[in-house]
Design goal:
Blueprint: H1 30-33, H2 38-51, H3 59-65, H4 69-78, H5 81-84, H6 87-101, E1 113-115, E2 122-124, H7 130-136, H8 145-153, H9 162-176, H10 196-206, H11 212-219, H12 222-228, E3 237-239, E4 242-246, E5 252-253, H13 256-267
Antiparallel strand pairs: 1-2, 3-4, 4-5
Helix pairs in contact: 3-6, 9-10, 11-12
Bound molecules: zinc ion (ZN).
Length: 273
């Protein structure tokens, strides 16, 4: 039996093919087949459609989620491979082999070579890390990884004019569909709630974000910039309970997060007190 490599972030090659090869015999594992159901095959197919060349990195977790805990526990106790290798790698390699054997893996397309609209450099889609592929979506890898990193993790420009800052605030509010809080001036990661079609617009915008010091110098605070830009009504004020402001539906809110929820419900057509 060849050694089972562990899961890590460098499991695909430059052409987008998996570095890990499917070994057909691993699909014959009776200890797994004894509880494997059509639902599990659907899980594999769904991962392939969603994550393409990275799909198998999430295979173990997805299989576990689709299986009762006691079944997984009993399998881990019974399968001798689990005494030789980490059980989640055994599961991943089983999934990899099964997807290859049944032809599911044929739906993995090669990663494309593309030109970045921000810097004009060429890149291949498989240059993105798995978390970024998950966040952007495998069919929306529309700029190169360095430009993406620059958009998410820059410190902001301290030289923007007052008009440029206001324009940034208004556009940020439009793209995020809420009143954005000051965190957007920081080195935000990918864990925020902007829907996929708007993400590239957001990234373009964040490359030109103002520095915190710039906003403070021109408007005293982020709240000052929100009010000056018209994103928040001029009656907005900071109180001991939080930022008192109006939601789109006129409902008085005591924080930006409350307003964000209120505006979200309003946009979704929900009626509330
Ligand atoms: Zn680029």
């Amino acid at each position: 039996m060849t050694e089972i490599p562990v899961a890590n972030d460098s499991m695909w090659d430059r052409t987008g093919r998996p570095v890990l090869e499917a070994v057909p015999e691993r699909a014959l594992n009776e200890h797994i087949l004894s509880w494997w159901k059509p639902d599990h095959d659907a899980v594999l197919q769904s991962l392939i459609m969603k994550y393409q060349w990275h799909w198998y990195l999430g295979a173990s977790d997805a299989i576990v989620s689709a299986t009762p805990g006691p079944v997984i526990d009993a399998w881990r106790d019974a399968d001798p491979l689990c005494r030789l290798y980490a059980w989640y790698n055994v599961l991943m390699h089983f999934g990899l082999a099964r997807a290859a054997t049944l032809g599911y893996a044929n739906a993995v397309r090669p990663s494309r070579r593309r030109q970045c609209p921000m810097c004009a450099q060429e890149y291949t889609e498989d240059a993105f890390s798995p978390p970024m592929v998950r966040w952007l979506g495998v069919d929306h890898l529309d700029c190169c990884p360095p430009c993406l990193g620059q958009a998410l993790y820059n410190d902001g420009d301290d030289t923007l004019s007052d008009r440029q800052v206001l324009s940034f605030v208004r556009q940020l509010s439009a793209v995020t569909a809420c009143v954005p809080d000051q965190r957007w001036l920081g080195r935000i990661g990918q864990h925020h709630n902007v829907q996929r079609p708007a993400r590239m617009r957001l990234l373009l915008l964040l490359r030109r974000r103002p520095a915190v010091a710039c906003v403070k110098r021109l408007y005293g605070s982020w709240l000052g910039a929100l009010v000056a830009s018209g994103v928040l009504a001029s009656g907005t004020r900071v109180t001991s309970r939080g930022i008192h402001c109006l939601a789109i539906d006129g409902h008085a809110c005591w924080s930006l997060s409350e307003k964000a929820i209120d505006d979200y419900l309003y946009a979704a057509g929900a009626i509330h007190e």
